[in-house]
């Protein structure tokens, strides 16, 4: 059922597409956030790493350097030591960061540990290694100590050298007046006691929550060293959320367009074909692709166009044939009228009236045949399907034909059993009547009728004669309207060429087939009609028409 419905495929495709875009968005957010988090760690580390590297490089001897590193480790409560460069495999981007006096941060998400490698200017054989396994208030309050330790070597020039190292920090590092910070008395008291304080600020802006570190400057109670504000990492900032949302909507729109594009293309083809039909071009056909609704629509359109084209051609042929067939009796009537006008003999005039009456009757018969054929040709007639006995219909036709005193022998083979079939009695009678009338017209002496239900579930009616038969190359033509053959079945034998055409249309609406071949018993023509015996014929015919 799924492959037969283009709309189900579209709905399912949209659901799958939404799931895919959601998964894609989630993975994309994780990738972007991983990169943002790495950049955030590096931005927090670069400045203080540079200051620590400067402190190590200032030490004159190896022992002093070792002592300095040990003190820094105790101050931060983090493992800090030197590692040989040959034992550290750096990537190209990491080596580039070392060359620019930036820190290399390797974060282990499983153990929640960051390993920091810092290059030393005066030591080409080692990296300074810091294992950051925790970040707390102790570590944050220790950061100003390293900056102040760097500035203490430049008395009186603290602000100038602070501006020099500030370029390595991604956040603000300044010396400010204590009065301009808006601190309360408790915070000022702690600064007076040489203690650093942390300031948390919640903001409705894009920066969100920030942390600032305020530390007293030695020998200068009116000024403090401020670090920050440093924004906390935001896993889903407005820009990222908006960007991912817009990208997801764009991908979803592309996917939906891709799902609807085949439907749009097929609809455009159907509209183009219908416009051509409107202009009178009935030759255009739609490609039938698959087995969904659009394929059914294309198939129905093709069958409709074929049917319309056939109706128009049949109408044109009918008009030509009717005009030709009507001329003969009309000409005879006109001739008879002229003869009557010139003749005074009563008996002669009476015979002319009889001839005119026969011609008028022939005209009525021709008109009835034309109306019946046109009704069957234009569309499905109203069929009153019922279970009927085929033998009863055949026997009725035998009685009616014998009543005409045709001087021909009408035989009926009633040996077949189970002759009950679903059919419209009136039209089945018309088929048998036309076939028998055609056989009587062309036979020599005998006509054989038979009917029944085969083992394959098909009902049949068969009419045979002992006439000259129909050549194999002409057998398909006998079912065309106003068709007459040039051999034994000549115009002299009578008829208008509509009887077998009417039969073929009735058989079509019965959902059956009709064939003509040579009779194996009588040697003449044999017409065999077959149709489903135990099915609802209306449904089957409509299915064939669709």
From TrEMBL:
It comes from Acinetobacter apis. This is histidine kinase. Coiled coil: none annotated. It catalyses: ATP + protein L-histidine = ADP + protein N-phospho-L-histidine. GO terms for cellular component: plasma membrane. Its EC number is 2.7.13.3. Keywords: ATP-binding, Cell membrane, Kinase, Membrane, Nucleotide-binding, Phosphoprotein, Transferase, Transmembrane, Transmembrane helix. SMART domains: HAMP, HATPase_c, HisKA. Residues 261-313 form the HAMP domain. The chain crosses the membrane at residues 6-29, 240-260. It is an enzyme of class 2 (transferase). Residues 321-535 form the Histidine kinase domain. Gene3D superfamilies: 1.10.287.130, HAMP domain in histidine kinase, Histidine kinase-like ATPase, C-terminal domain. It is found in: Cell membrane. GO terms for molecular function: ATP binding; phosphorelay sensor kinase activity. It is a multi-pass membrane protein.
């Amino acid at each position: 059922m799924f492959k037969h419905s283009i709309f189900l495929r579209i709905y399912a495709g949209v659901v799958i597409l939404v799931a895919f875009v959601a998964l894609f968005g989630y993975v994309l957010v994780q990738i972007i956030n991983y990169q943002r988090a790495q950049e955030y760690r590096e931005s927090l580390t670069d400045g203080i790493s540079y200051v620590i590297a400067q402190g190590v490089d200032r030490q004159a001897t190896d022992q002093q350097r070792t002592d300095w590193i040990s003190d820094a480790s105790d101050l931060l409560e983090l493992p800090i030591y030197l590692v040989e460069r040959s034992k550290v495999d750096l990537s190209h981007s990491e080596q580039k960061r070392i060359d620019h006096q930036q820190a290399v941060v390797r974060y282990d998400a499983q153990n929640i540990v960051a390993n920091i490698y810092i290059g030393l200017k005066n030591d080409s054989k080692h990296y300074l290694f810091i294992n950051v396994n925790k970040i707390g208030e102790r570590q944050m309050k220790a950061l100003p100590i390293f900056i102040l330790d760097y500035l203490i070597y430049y008395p009186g020039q603290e602000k100038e050298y602070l501006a020099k190292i500030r370029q390595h920090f991604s956040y603000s590092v300044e010396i400010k007046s204590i009065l301009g910070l808006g601190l309360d008395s408790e915070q000022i008291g702690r600064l007076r006691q040489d203690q650093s304080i942390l300031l948390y600020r919640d903001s409705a802006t894009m920066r969100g929550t920030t942390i600032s570190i305020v530390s007293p400057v030695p020998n200068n109670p009116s000024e403090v060293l401020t670090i920050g504000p440093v924004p906390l990492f935001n896993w889903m900032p407005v820009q990222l959320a908006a960007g991912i949302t817009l990208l997801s909507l764009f991908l979803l729109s592309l996917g939906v367009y891709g799902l609807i594009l085949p439907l749009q293309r097929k609809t455009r083809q159907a509209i183009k074909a219908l416009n051509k039909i409107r202009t009178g071009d009935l030759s255009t056909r739609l490609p039938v692709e698959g087995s969904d609704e659009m394929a059914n629509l294309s198939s129905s359109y093709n069958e409709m166009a074929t049917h319309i084209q056939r109706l128009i051609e049949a109408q044109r042929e009918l008009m030509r044939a009717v005009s030709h067939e009507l001329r003969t009796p009309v000409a005879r009537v006109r001739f008879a009228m002229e003869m009557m006008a010139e003749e005074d003999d009563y008996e002669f005039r009476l015979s002319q009236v009889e001839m005119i009456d026969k011609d008028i009757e022939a005209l009525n018969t021709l008109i009835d045949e034309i109306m019946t054929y046109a009704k069957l040709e234009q569309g499905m007639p109203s069929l009153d399907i019922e279970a009927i006995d085929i033998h009863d219909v055949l026997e009725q036709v035998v009685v009616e034909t014998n009543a005409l005193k045709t001087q021909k022998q009408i035989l009926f083979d009633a040996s077949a059993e189970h002759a009950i079939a679903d059919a419209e009695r009136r039209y089945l009678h018309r088929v048998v009547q036309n076939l028998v009338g055609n056989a009587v017209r062309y036979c020599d002496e005998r006509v054989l009728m038979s009917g029944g239900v085969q083992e394959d579930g098909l009902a049949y009616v068969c009419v045979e004669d002992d006439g000259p038969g129909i050549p194999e190359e002409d057998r398909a033509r006998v079912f065309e309207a106003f068709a007459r053959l040039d051999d034994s079945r000549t115009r002299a034998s009578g008829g208008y060429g509509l009887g077998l055409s009417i039969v073929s249309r009735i058989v079509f609406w019965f959902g059956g087939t009709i064939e003509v071949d040579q009779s194996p018993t009588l040697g003449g023509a044999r017409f065999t009609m077959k149709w489903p015996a135990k099915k609802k014929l209306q449904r089957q015919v409509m299915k064939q028409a669709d």
